From TrEMBL:
Residues 81-157 form the PUB domain. PANTHER family: UBX DOMAIN-CONTAINING PROTEIN 6 (PTHR23153:SF38), UBX-RELATED (PTHR23153). SMART domains: PUG. It comes from Hericium alpestre. Residues 222-234 have a biased composition (Gly residues). This is PUB domain-containing protein. Residues 1-28, 178-234 are annotated as: Disordered. InterPro entries: PUB-like_dom_sf, PUB_domain. The lineage of its organism: Eukaryota, Fungi, Dikarya, Basidiomycota, Agaricomycotina.
């Protein structure tokens, strides 16, 4: 997958914004973490089952369910489908870059002022919450805001990455089914229109043939059975 480097200046489109006060950042982070904590409900009460590749109710079961809830309803239902899918793909790219090169610092941070990050993670609903759950925390360096990954959350990153792959695969397959259904509906509608058109043309042809037969019959009746020429009397 293509590397997504978010901490280099050429990627910035908007001018860097002034960092928020520390208290404001801490309050925002606390609010995000509080929302994550509130979503940790009893799975048995909502009947969500684990995927087949995982053992049910193992040590990471609750964490997987937490990530799933952050995606649905957190991201999928709160944003347009196209935006939600783009955001999930960006999160996956960031996570996979870290897992592939865990010692490369450039993959462990992103700027919220970067144009792509702003579009896919900052502006949509629920996406920064997912990044925080993966292990990113907001910091300020040289008056520039960053989100940096904390290495102690590497297990959360692995779990969250697996859930991103799982959900993206499900959503892609769902979209493919919807596209096939739309194509079938379109083909059926075209076949129906063609059938109506053919019936109309057949009916028109039948009427034309009937008119021709009736015209020929009238012509025969008009010229036949009248007798010979009248006789002349002297």
């Amino acid at each position: 997958m293509q590397n997504l480097v978010m901490d280099e200046e050429p990627l910035d489109v908007d001018a860097p914004r002034s960092p928020s006060p520390t208290s404001s950042r801490e309050a925002r982070l606390a609010a995000i973490q509080s929302r994550i904590a509130r979503q940790q409900v009893d799975d048995s009460a909502i009947g969500i089952s684990a995927p087949s590749e995982f053992q049910p109710f193992d040590a990471d079961h609750e964490k997987r369910q937490e990530f799933r809830r952050l995606i649905d309803p957190g991201i999928l239902r709160a944003n347009r489908r196209e935006q939600a899918m783009a955001s999930l793909q960006t999160l996956l790219t960031i996570a996979e870059n870290i897992l592939r090169e865990p010692d490369n610092p450039k993959y462990k941070q992103f700027k919220p002022t970067n144009s792509k990050i702003k579009h896919d993670l900052v502006d949509p609903k629920g996406t920064l919450e997912y990044a925080v759950a993966l292990g990113f925390r907001d910091e300020v360096e040289n008056f520039q805001p960053f989100y940096r990954f904390r290495d102690r959350h590497i297990n959360d990153l692995r779990i969250g990455t697996a859930i991103l792959k799982e959900v993206l695969q499900i959503e892609v397959e769902k979209q493919e089914r919807e596209e096939r259904h739309k194509q079938m509906q379109k083909a059926e509608e075209e076949a129906r229109k063609e059938k109506v058109k053919k019936a109309f043309m057949d009916d028109r042809k039948s009427n034309l043939l009937r008119d021709q037969r009736e015209k020929a019959a009238r012509a025969r009746n008009g010229t036949g059975g009248g007798g010979g020429s009248p006789s002349l009397s002297s």
